[in-house]
Write a structure and sequence with these properties.
about 90 residues; mainly alpha
Amino acid sequence: MRGLGADLIGRVTFPDHHRPSEAEAARLLAAARSSSATLVTTERTPCASGGEAGTLEELWRQSRPVPVRLQFPAQEAERLAVLVDAALRLP
């Protein structure tokens, strides 16, 4: 985000594909309001898919999704592909 010119005032991390609880959503919204901040999330956050209600719906409406793309050097991409193929062949 700093690379995009954002002035970060806080950061909260969750495990991959974490769906925030109502309490977590309320805390995030309150923190953003108290510092006049914009909430930012990745596009893959579960609440980003919509269909939420209440505090989770408000969290999604108040958040700005940012696309994230990973790029690997060719050699590393090939190594990753070999690892993924091997993992898919496991019984």
